[in-house]
């Protein structure tokens, strides 16, 4: 749908090759999400696997409680060798908001029991989860590829990744049963480009391990606005029994754009950097079956 929209209205998409960045010459500015829900396709094999898993889940009569892994980090500035990672108060708020909506406890570092240590995250990933939400720092480099910072004891040594979560870590936890994984972290959709394979990174690892739908970032995400966008996103995801993730993301983007415009937060007259940096990969539909908290 995004490709067809771009062909019909080439001025609607320019600059970065994503379906929601406007052309400065367009008047009025239109984004693809104004008229379309956007999904990014994956391989036919992965799509078939996702559809089969969704059918099995729908056919299951077993009553199981909803389980989720929600991480928010860091609470304070973190120095890792020559790099400095600033505190992300929005990520902490985001994790708490998401966990409250899902009825679970977030790993946000309030105490030793709730610190997002890598060993804890790996154990949880290996369990039967319905949803994964990681709000933290993401890093992409030629030396290390794409990875997520889980705790302040991270080390950059290639032989000892410390508290970094890598695509290799995710693959070691397979098979994963989550319907949805949200990587709310800068550059989480980046990766190494392999001939005949495309971009190989965290998203590919999650999809390959069995996650049906993955949400990742195309570039650096603003902390405050991303936290707000995710609140809108989960409002929609938890509003009904079965929800299209692309529809939920589109609605969240439009609501966040309205908030940014109303708050006068545009940069050089452009708002897209605040709300359009996320994309939906994979099957697209989820049924979270979150129990009511009342």
Give the SSE map.
Elements (H helix, E strand, L loop, with lengths): L1 H7 L35 H16 L8 E5 L5 E3 L2 E3 L3 H14 L15 H9 L4 E5 L2 E4 L3 E5 L14 E2 L1 H6 L7 E5 L6 E4 L3 E4 H8 L3 E5 L5 H15 L5 E2 H18 L9 H4 L2 E5 L2 E2 L8
Parallel strand pairs: 1-4, 4-8, 8-11
Antiparallel strand pairs: 2-3, 5-6, 6-7, 9-10, 11-13, 12-14
Helix pairs in contact: 3-7, 7-8
The topology string of helices and strands comes to: HHEEEHHEEEEHEEEHEHEHHEE
Structural class by helix and strand composition: alpha/beta
Indicate the low-confidence ranges by residue numbers: 1-27, 155-161
> In angstroms, what separates the terminal alpha carbons?
39 Å
- Tell me the strand order in the biggest sheet: 1-4-8-11-13
Number of helices: 9
Please give the radius of gyration in angstroms. Answer: 18 Å
What does this molecule look like?
By secondary structure, the chain is of the alpha/beta class. 33% of the residues lie in helices and 18% in strands. It has helices at 2-8, 44-59, 89-102, 118-126, 167-172, 202-209, 223-237, 245-262, 272-275; strands at residues 68-72, 78-80, 83-85, 131-135, 138-141, 145-149, 164-165, 180-184, 191-194, 198-201, 213-217, 243-244, 278-282, 285-286. The strands form 5 sheets. Strands 1-4-8-11-13 form a 5-stranded mixed sheet, sandwiched between helices. Strand 5 and strand 6 (145-149) form a beta hairpin. Helix 7 packs across helix 8.
In short:
This protein is α/β, with parallel strands linked by helices and 294 residues long.
